[in-house]
Amino acid sequence: MRKKSTLLFALIAGLGIANLSMAAEVAKEPAGRTVLFNKAKGNCLACHAIPNDPKAESPGNIAPPFIMMKERFPDRNKLRGQIWDSTVANPKTSMPPFGKHQILTEQEIDQVVEYILSL
């Protein structure tokens, strides 16, 4: 009986360590990336591609890819404004106004901007 208890304890402990490892991996991911990939929030991958990102499976191609973002948006506020309400720059855009329609919080928009500028 003692052998079974020890084995069960080792199994449970091992699962706990595995879950902690997975949690640590998620914790390492930048907050903006988490929002960007979240289908209930940003869902940026529905339209944008992120080249060289193995987790960016089946990206859309109706919007520009996230490449050279610092060069394309040297003014951080311009990128933030584009995400907050893209209809200001282009009234016929298909990009939702994430801030104006409160799809994302102000903090989430800032996190997405920081992540996108890191690409």
Structure description:
- With about 120 residues, the protein is mostly helical.
- The chain has one domain: Orthogonal Bundle (Cytochrome Bc1 Complex, Chain D, domain 2).
- About 50% of the residues lie in helices and about 0% in strands.
- The protein has five helices and no strands.
- Helix 2 (about 30-35) crosses helix 5.
Overall number of structural domains: 1
Give the name of the CATH architecture: Orthogonal Bundle
Radius of gyration: 20 Å
Question: Count of DSSP E strands?
Answer: 0
Structural class, by secondary structure, is mainly alpha
- Mean of pLDDT: 83
List keywords for this structure.
mainly alpha, 119 residues, Cytochrome Bc1 Complex, Chain D, domain 2
